[in-house]
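To whoever picks this up:

The parser on our side crashed when reading a file containing two proteins. I've narrowed it down to the boundary between the first structure block and the second sequence. Both blocks are reproduced below exactly, byte for byte. First block:
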Amino acid sequence: MAPKKTGNDLIAGDVFQKLRTKILTLDIKPGSRLVEDEVSAWLEAGRTPVREALLRLQGEGLVSRDRGWVVEASDPASFRSIFESRIAIEGYATRLAAERATPAALDELEQLVTEMDRGEELPRSEINRLNQTFHRQIVALSQNPFFAELHERTQFQYWNLRLPVIFMKDQLGRSSEQHHAILSALKDRDGERAERATREHIQTTMSIVADALRDD
């Protein structure tokens, strides 16, 4: 029989989820200090559940202790590991999405791809938002919550890198072609082709980032 959860356990879980979301979406920036009393006041929670939540976040590698709690920053040297994780997670998640996505969900993806086709007209921040949404929704369509959680972590690590990459016109065009290829495979319910197209797409981005780091 599972142990009964106490009020502190439930509050700590809520604090953990709220802080985790803020960190993963970069609302709380890397390097930020998290003072327990301030977090307690902000979230209207006691210090014990706040401390428990911070310890859970430390276990996930999202915060560390350095004369207090600090939000972790990613090391640019780890970019290859981050992309390899994305290839593994997103590749198979896309294969599953090809089998499980509803027609309505595929229509939403098509709308995102159409919006991204206007890349040259859009601010970089909007392109990034659309791209993140496209990839996040595909992973969600795998209907595997563990993939969604792992993908959220890899996305956090990627955007946390603050890499010196500016995508050129031809690179944006190539990315758009690859998005169309992924969408086409999903609509055809071809899981193998969808996975292959996704892996190629992420590997292309990894090559662009590697070139930028060599030139930096």
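<<boundary where parser fails>>
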Amino acid sequence: MTTPDDVKKAPAKDPWDLPDVSGLVVGVLGGTGDQGRGLAYRLAKAGQKVIIGSRAAERARTAAEELGLGVEGADNAECARRSDVVIVAVPWDGHAKTLESLRADLVGKLVIDCVNPLGFDKQGAYAIKPEEGSAAQQAAALLPESRVTAAFHHLSAVLLSDPEIAEIDTDVMVLGEKRADTDIVQALAGRIPGMRGVFAGRLRNAHQVEALVANLISVNRRYKAHAGLRVTDV
């Protein structure tokens, strides 16, 4: 008779044993904006093949030429089709419309949403909570045949784009439904010197991660800084 004590448990997977992602093509929708452009630059500098996407292909190609490092430019649809992993870095007010228009092009793709729904008034930045709960959850609802994750929310575009800065000293909170997908995103973050991807839960927890950017904006304004995050004891 077999008892529970006779069954050997599989050893727990090392959470830092991440896949090799060096051969993946990364597309950046909104790659001509500050955040998208900075991410494209850092990933390309780390050796990743990167395609910048924009509504206007010519604008994307111009931005790619300025970055160099083998970066290519294309319209959003072509960028999505040619990429293995697609980072969504478009403005919040165009988030839903952009993803709706690219639903077919993003089928089967790993999508990383880094959009922060924010509003601004005389008191500064404040978080907006979308009907779906977060930008990432909105993306998941609009892209039912894609693998949606969330990451890269708290990065300074100024630091990302500065060629004089060798390392970006920060952690990246990574959220998603499947470990295989979040492991890929963590590995991509880890390709950028100084950066580390840390799993932070499922997409239902994305709102507070997106909302924290409003607090970082307040930190930056008070201290004239480009603040990021570090998670301790992991």
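After patching the parser it read the second block fine. The first strand starts at residue 25 and ends at 29. Strands lie at 25-29, 49-54, 72-75, 85-88, 110-113, 118-121, 124-127, 147-150, 170-176, 195-199.
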